[in-house]
Records
---
Amino acid sequence: MIKRRDFIHSAALLSSSLVLPKLSLAAQSQNTLAIPERLDGLAGPSGLRYPLTLREGSMQFLPGKRTSTFGISRDYLGPTLFLRRGNNVEMAVENTLNEQTTLHWHGLHVPAAADGGPAQIIDPGSTWRPSFEVQQRAGTFWYHSHLLHKTGEQVYRGLAGMIVIEDDESKKLALPQNYGVDDIPVLVQDRRFNDDGSLSYLQSHRDVMMGMYGDTILVNGCLNPVFRPTTRRLRMRLLNAANARTFTFAFDDQRDFALIASDGGFLEAPYQCKSVVLAPSERAEIIVEIVDQRPFKLISLPLDSNSPFAMRGMMGRMHSGNESRFDILKIEPQLTLEDSPDIPAALNQIPRMDPNDAVITRRLELTMAMGMGMMRRRQGSDASFFINGQAMNMNRIDYRVKKDTTEIWEVVNDTMMMHPFHIHHSQFQILDRNGVAPAAEERGLKDTVKIGPGETVRFIMRFENFSDTEIPYMYHCHILEHEDNGMMGQFTVE
Ligand code: C2O
Ligand code: CU
Ligand code: CU
């Protein structure tokens, strides 16, 4: 039972910092969209080597102000890692920070020891060298810090980057694939700054409960960005790299676009739509047609209050984070536009996994402590977010999965807000959402799925290729403050 006094207290905390993006209100100068350098790897004895240096940096996000940051071989964020399916790669991750960290390859199918989860700590001054074969189909992935209790803060400061995987099939498809020209990374984050330009993180319990929302949008680390395409079709690799905010991507002139890929790679066929909702860590590749020279904008629409992903009850009334419309990226077509190939009618084949092959259905219940629980946490003790009533414990393996089996996971959201549920090791297929088969945009391979308040989502996944009786993989909510405060668990594949 929540005591009335605590309820009022929580409500006051909630309404104290309504979050409205500043960008759509302020007329500010435009900055050319930064395109992170692409890293193709250096030839080495055991495959391609990717040297990555985790370091402190300094950026000028806001006019006239310096912000201290973390970056990966740069001041903020990291290079885009280009990997080719079938190649052996060796990552060389050097930690020059004054604190521990880890680096996780989000969405990649790799051995547990190479996954970069909370167990693979990189101490200051040391270099972590995981190696693996790229087994993934072509798609857009990312990498980020995954230190226990610190993921949110380290990602917020800049420890993240994009991964692009290519394969023989993707190279053959007639799609824009000239990086930085007609195929661009769009890594979207929201941040909040103090008056002196420093990053502001976790100022209230609301920031923990809702996750950390910012009032300023950055794309590839760039404020108020503009991109100037030179081709008739533009492929955008949308990555929601925010800690907590969900974006409803659309264009300001309501033009439609082709959705060609989700988290784990290409859909079977392009899907024409006008908006796509991405929760933290979800990806979508889209192709937009540029018909004339008129500038237009990639924006985020307010999340409809009828949406299954909108917040409910008290949280819904207090929260404004997903309720405003704001600009993400301005697009100013150049005077002459080169022709682009027609979008292929077929992109991929995704054999459906058969629920009859599943050896087990695991049920996971997501819960969070409001009121009293939050207050307890405030006194520095408890976790606030749980899976099956338990908070993450590195000394506890929650599930032991048998290698070469198929499982169904049934995730139930018993809270008033959406949680993007992510699992390491493989891509899965969504079976149903409240018993209803997924819509077109959710029919591809996924590693993160939005689970709205009160919803039950079932997905099916196969656990192949690697086994390790000790080192676990993670599953968790990808609102990083929820993950850091308990909503995570571990499983081995053995
Ligand atoms: Cu994006 Cu457990 O990770
Ligand atoms: Cu992951
Ligand atoms: Cu969550």
Note: The first helix runs from residue 4 to 15.
---
Amino acid sequence: MLRNKQQYAQITAIGGYLPTTRRTNADLERLSDTSDEWIMKRTGIKERRILEDGLATSDMAVEAIKELCATYQKDITTIDALLVATSSPDMPMPSTANIICDKLDLTQVWAFDMNAACSGFLYALDMGAALVETGRYKNVVVVGADKISSYVDTTDRSTNILFGDGAGAVWLEPSKETGVLDALLLSDGKGIEYLNIKGGGSRYPYAMENWDSTHRYLQQDGKVVFKNAVTAMSQACQSLLDQNGLTVEDVNWLVAHQANKRIIDAVGKELGIEEEKALNNITYSGNTIAATIPLCIWEYKNQLKKGDLLLLTAFGAGFSWGASLLQWNI
Ligand code: COA
């Protein structure tokens, strides 16, 4: 049985933004010892978008929110809560949500950031939905945005092939009928050493003595992350379906975090979902961290039908991971 809620949070609008500058596989061939053929075969990625120097995560989020408002005729001044999932805030403080509010001239908004790495959007969506379900907030905007290129060593072929910049946003409103149905979100610190950006926080501040310059970059053990991602996302999806009395047959679309095309395929296979039901936009965007899920839905929005059941799943640093179920209603 789907969880019975007195009030649901429903997505009533979606927006996105991708920077215009492309970093192609040919660019990466010049920067590191790799090839277009290897990257396509092992990741399914052809290019990623890179935000120019001088601009930051908030600039992309602002564009995504403006695009959403223009497309769905939403009045920006009615936003009463803004949650921003990001691992690449403009600065340690204030929050990127505050900076976005300032850029949008919003002064009366409950706004803050959440960091759950690549799972951030699912965490923020669950939190945003909970705010709406309480009845205290009526127009909640949830953003997933990352300028992760600021942390990628462009000469490191173990990471430069995967990551790109982008932002996606959804608008949540109350509904008596349907919307965000349920979520299962988890975390386990066993993954800290396998995927991280060490520098710039309070443990390894930039000003520390004996600063290790590799700490400024995203580091990962790709193989360990890959295996854990497939198992964790598949299990979270299956558990969420089970606890709601559903099967993969009920799911219209699987929207998995866009980390690597082979990971998306493996999760679909593990769950027994037909390939054409698994949305993917990784080829031309890469892994945009907290932005992948809203950006992917945004790109496919014209193919989604009212009433479709979407199963979302993500995995990221921490490790943090989970799944969400929602009924599309736009
Ligand atoms: N270009 C060319 N060759 C490369 C390469 C690159 N960019 N990276 C690795 N190789 C080589 C390796 O040296 C190795 O060569 P060898 O067999 O001669 O030793 C071979 O290719 C295989 O390397 P491996 O590290 O096993 O590749 P992989 O298939 O695991 O792919 C990743 C590497 C990073 C693409 C993959 O592990 C991955 O996507 N992991 C998940 C990362 C992720 O999702 N992170 C974010 C989570 S939110």
Note: The pocket of coenzyme A is lined by residues 34, 38, 42-43, 118, 157-158, 161-162, 195, 220, 222-223, 225-226, 229, 259-260, 263, 287, 315-316 (CB under 6 Å).
